[in-house]
């Protein structure tokens, strides 16, 4: 999607991301890196239709790449629509020569996460004036083993119904309540047919592969 927003606000977020100072090895650091402002220069310059038309004239039919005009640009991935359910997929493999190697490093993740520093200032389903977009953790998928074989298990929270989430999913209404605490409930570890109650601390120490959050605010 090509945006023609005011360049002064195009890269603004709901909350100041520079105040984050995220800890390396945390989900906040992963999100910060993923939404980092990138400069496109040299061989990464952006093909500019406006510049091309201005250079060649508006009525000229441009058929040769020699007539294309490329320009320096900035690129940033931000969230424009806060989802009812936030799914974070951690890349747990890296290229090692011609082989793929699993990354077993523990990534810290919280029970409540604020997406505001990663949302565009004009996020479509956030009420005007809100500077927080909060989510509560309710599920984790963990993988043990290697790239060739292994086993998937899950952590899930049994909790009461989130009425604000239902409104958001069914009617597209933004949640209005100022909830800032995790949704109360009991965590369980599920492995095949085995289910065991566990503490939140056990969940937060897991080697997360997939994280599932539900929107609070």
UniProtKB/TrEMBL annotation:
<keyword id="KW-0378">Hydrolase</keyword>
<dbReference type="GO" id="GO:0004843">
    <property type="term" value="F:cysteine-type deubiquitinase activity"/>
</dbReference>
<dbReference type="InterPro" id="IPR050164">
    <property type="entry name" value="Peptidase_C19"/>
</dbReference>
<feature type="domain" description="USP">
    <location>
        <begin position="1"/>
        <end position="216"/>
    </location>
</feature>
<dbReference type="GO" id="GO:0016579">
    <property type="term" value="P:protein deubiquitination"/>
</dbReference>
<dbReference type="InterPro" id="IPR001394">
    <property type="entry name" value="Peptidase_C19_UCH"/>
</dbReference>
<dbReference type="InterPro" id="IPR018200">
    <property type="entry name" value="USP_CS"/>
</dbReference>
<dbReference type="InterPro" id="IPR038765">
    <property type="entry name" value="Papain-like_cys_pep_sf"/>
</dbReference>
<dbReference type="GO" id="GO:0005634">
    <property type="term" value="C:nucleus"/>
</dbReference>
<dbReference type="GO" id="GO:0005829">
    <property type="term" value="C:cytosol"/>
</dbReference>
<protein>
    <submittedName>
        <fullName>UBP16 hydrolase</fullName>
    </submittedName>
</protein>
<dbReference type="Pfam" id="PF00443">
    <property type="entry name" value="UCH"/>
</dbReference>
<dbReference type="InterPro" id="IPR028889">
    <property type="entry name" value="USP"/>
</dbReference>
């Amino acid at each position: 999607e090509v945006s023609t927003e005011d360049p002064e606000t195009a890269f603004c977020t709901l909350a100041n991301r520079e105040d984050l100072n995220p800890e390396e090895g945390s989900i906040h650091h992963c999100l910060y890196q993923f939404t980092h402002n990138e400069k496109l220069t040299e061989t990464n310059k952006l093909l500019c239709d406006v510049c091309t038309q201005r250079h060649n004239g508006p009525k000229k039919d441009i058929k040769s790449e020699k007539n294309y005009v490329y320009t320096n640009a900035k690129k940033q991935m931000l969230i424009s629509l806060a989802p009812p359910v936030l799914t974070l997929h951690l890349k747990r493999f890296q290229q090692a020569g011609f082989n793929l190697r699993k990354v077993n490093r523990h990534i810290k993740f919280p029970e409540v996460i604020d997406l505001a520093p990663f949302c565009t200032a004009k996020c479509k389903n956030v009420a005007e004036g809100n500077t927080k977009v909060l989510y509560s953790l309710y599920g984790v998928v963990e993988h043990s083993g290697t790239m060739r074989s292994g086993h998937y298990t899950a952590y899930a929270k049994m909790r009461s119904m989130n009425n604000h989430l239902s409104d958001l999913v069914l009617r597209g209404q933004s949640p209005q309540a100022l909830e800032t605490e995790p949704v109360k409930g009991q965590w369980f570890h599920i492995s095949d047919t085995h289910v065991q109650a566990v503490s939140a601390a056990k969940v937060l120490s897991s080697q997360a592969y997939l994280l599932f959050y539900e929107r609070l605010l």
